[in-house]
């Protein structure tokens, strides 16, 4: 306990000293403010993340709480702005890029059928549950559909971080989760397109929906089916010695494909994950993985802390919000979990259980959807808060339960595991 | 030559493909735009930096040109905005943090006398030269003083990058340059405070100037004189194994001290450099240097490219602007070079010559000063362009000449050089 007091002391003094002097300085530019906010996010996320892991909890929970602590609800050091949102998004991009680097296409294809089942059920069941919630609360048809849509998205970043920490990111169930999350994002995108079109009173055409679906599916297949053979072919022409200086090129690849992914309408993290998977084919020959992890270990906590910054604590004081939020949470968890359990007959309960739990977090994807709903006045403040409760609860639920049901594997990376010959099925 | 064509081809196709699809996509959010801009900056800076090094030129020049290429003057993919400026500043911060990690206080103190001489002469001579330029062009007293102020600041980041590339960042002359740059920044800050106070018609008090100077000097001494003994004392309590996960803490230290440095009115890069120097005392025991270099190799090119993005090419078509810019450039180079040569009697011509050239770049510090001048309407567009010509010319001049007069050392880092026992005076 002495160490915990020490950690709290470090956190407080570390945050207070610069803050006081910062407040005391009469003039500071916008850039200075951003620098200070980023410092608060990185520092508090590190300390609370470390504290959480000391208490046997997942680091991400500490990092989300760090955001709550320094955000507008409590200390008020950090407010949402475009630059911090961009930094948080870069964190998510590099996180998923690093996850992609540890997954190969052939491994993901091997679990393709399971991923499709999990994704489709994991979308249908929460959609149905959310619709019913709205129906029983006398909400309009479009509002009920919107609640369902907010329950569809899987925020795979949080699960990926936990599985990475546990050293099981290349296990079979991790691959099913990742594959299902990609499919989820593609279908979820199409649904969001339809719903926001309906909300704004537009005519929703089957051709429009099919085009959106076709473009995003085409993007995924183009990257994988062109990229993987291409990189294998040019691999023999690349000299590892010369490439070692090309870390910036690797980074620009991940940024470029994240941007492209955004262009076709998918989440940028999907593009980063896909190009990471392409580079995974040759990553054994080059030494960029550690450097990508360095970037990720700095920026991914910013992403999780920003989730906390965006949590409106005050809304949680309303008992009706909490009650409805709890109902939505149960629907959200059951929907994804039952979707995962559907593969139990083929894969066994243990794998199916982990997949189901791993699909639960709604995280930032849910926050984005609900943000659209609020800004288009499709939902009011109360419904917004209820859905946010569900998003936060599912986001916190998954890491806690995953750590209870998964035994950590010591070797933290695929490469090391491969070297030991234990790559397949470890941790399952 | 075949390879150069190939590189151009890669650059063009790499930039055009996403750009066209980006332009074709009818809807993309602000975050998507930032992602795309960052991709353009990182990618073009990597390719043109590589091209420059193939042509025997310093990488930074290629990176600045990359910014010109993708910036509003040519392709128009990247426009100045707060987020990109913040990312560029993070690049400069991590660059100077990495430089600090390779310098120890005792090494810098050993060249303290020389650094003070170089800094004071390197401020006085360009100040005087700039004032005379204004006087002979019939500008007002305050405008003449302002031109002098814009010529004072040393942008040590560019020199540090070149010296780092050449493997001589821990040589004696590099230390003199770094020490002089810190002093430059402190005195330059005081001068800028006085001049902008005079420009806005405020009463400039000796007490105000002395307070500014005292606070920034106090900050520098406090960080170094408290930090260095403190980290040595707690070093024995830190377990390298446990700290290896604390890379985020290291990063938050650099961000925190950069922010603090901004609070006391110094450039954030000075704080990052100082805390890097404190951590240099223990960096041999920990493995964070490679990770810091990974961050720096991604973000520092963004900083240099953003210098290019801010260059208004159109203004360079005016022959009077070019002529006056050339005169200012000669004054700027001579002023810093003669300041460096003042230490020739003690240190020999070779060291003094390298120090003088190394102090020449005005870079982003000059751009900040001139930006203040333009926004307060102290200078007009033409004078602005002339000073910008001087800033760009000095910024390009120094790397080119430094590479002509310094023989590269193979070992890229202090640690490796130490291991070989060649740390002292190498490359001199």
E-strand count of chain A:
0
Beta-strand portion of chain A reads under 5%
Distance between the termini of chain A: 34 Å
Q: Give the quaternary arrangement of the chains.
A: homodimer
- By DSSP (H or I, 4+ residues per run), the number of helices of chain A equals 19
Largest inter-chain contact set: A-B, 54 and 54 residues
Helix percent of chain A reads over 70%
**Series of H and E elements of chain A:** HHHHHHHHHHHHHHHHHHH
User: Low-confidence segments of chain A, ≥5 residues, pLDDT <50?
Assistant: 23-28, 412-428
CATH architecture heading of chain A? Up-down Bundle
The CATH class designation of chain A is: Mainly Alpha
Structural class of chain A: mainly alpha
Write down the CATH topology of chain A: Na+/H+ antiporter like fold
Organism (chains A, B): Aquirhabdus parva
Main location (chains A, B): membrane
Subcellular location (chains A, B): Membrane
Keywords (chains A, B): Antiport, Ion transport, Membrane, Signal, Sodium, Sodium transport, Transmembrane, Transmembrane helix, Transport
Note down, in words, how this protein is organized.
Chains A, B: It is a multi-pass membrane protein. Chains A, B: Pfam families: Na_H_Exchanger. Chains A, B: This is Cation:proton antiporter. Chains A, B: GO terms for molecular function: antiporter activity. Chains A, B: One of its GO terms (cellular component) is membrane. 2 copies of one chain form a homodimer. With 428 residues, the first copy, chain A, is mostly helical. Chain A is built from 19 helices and no strands. In chain A, helix 2 (30-54) packs across helix 3, helix 15 crosses helix 18 and helix 17 packs antiparallel against helix 18. Mean pLDDT of chain A is 80; it is low at 23-28 and 412-428. Chain A starts with a helix and ends in an 8-residue tail after the last helix. Chain A has a single domain, classed as Na+/H+ antiporter like fold, CATH 1.20.1530. The first copy, chain A, is globular and about 65 Å long.
């Amino acid at each position: 306990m002495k160490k915990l007091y020490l950690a709290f002391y470090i956190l407080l003094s570390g945050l207070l000293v610069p803050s006081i002097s910062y407040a005391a300085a009469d003039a500071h530019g916008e850039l200075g403010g951003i620098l200070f906010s980023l410092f608060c996010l990185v520092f508090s996320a590190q300390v609370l993340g470390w504290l959480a892991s000391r208490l046997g909890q997942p680091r991400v929970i500490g990092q989300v709480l760090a955001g709550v602590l320094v955000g507008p609800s409590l200390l008020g050091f950090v407010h949402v702005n475009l630059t911090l949102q961009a930094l948080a998004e870069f964190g998510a991009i590099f996180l998923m890029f690093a996850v992609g680097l540890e997954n190969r296409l052939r491994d993901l294809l091997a679990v393709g059928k399971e991923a499709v089942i999990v994704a489709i059920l994991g979308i249908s069941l929460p959609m149905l549950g959310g619709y019913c919630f709205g129906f029983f609360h006398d909400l309009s048809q479009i509002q009920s559909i919107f609640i369902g849509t907010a329950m569809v998205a899987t925020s795979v970043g949080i699960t990926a971080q936990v599985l990475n920490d546990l050293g099981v990111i290349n296990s079979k169930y991790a691959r099913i989760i990742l594959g299902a999350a990609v499919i989820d994002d593609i279908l979820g995108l199409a649904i969001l397109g339809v719903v926001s079109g309906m909300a704004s009173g537009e005519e929703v055409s089957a051709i429009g929906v099919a085009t959106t679906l076709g473009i995003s599916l085409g993007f995924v297949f183009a990257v994988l089916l062109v990229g993987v053979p291409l990189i294998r072919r040019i691999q023999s022409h690349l000299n590892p010695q010369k490439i070692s200086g090309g870390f910036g090129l690797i980074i620009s690849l991940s940024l470029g494909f994240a941007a492209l992914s955004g262009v076709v309408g998918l989440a940028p993290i999907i593009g980063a994950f896909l190009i990471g998977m392409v580079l995974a084919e040759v990553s054994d020959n080059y030494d960029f993985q550690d450097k990508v992890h360095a970037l990720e270990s700095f920026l991914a906590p910013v992403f999780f802390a920003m989730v906390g910054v965006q949590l409106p604590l005050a809304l949680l004081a309303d008992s009706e919000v909490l009650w409805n939020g709890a109902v939505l949470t149960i629907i959200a968890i059951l929907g994804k979990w039952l979707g995962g359990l559907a593969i139990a007959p083929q894969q066994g309960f243990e794998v199916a259980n982990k997949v189901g739990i791993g699909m639960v977090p709604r995280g930032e994807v849910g926050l984005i959807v609900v943000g659209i709903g609020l800004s288009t006045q499709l939902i009011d403040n109360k419904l917004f808060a209820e859905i946010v409760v569900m998003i936060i609860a599912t986001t916190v639920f998954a890491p806690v339960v995953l750590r209870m049901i998964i035994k950590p594997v010591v070797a933290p990376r695929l490469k090391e595991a491969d070297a030991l010959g234990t790559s397949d099925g470890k941790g399952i």
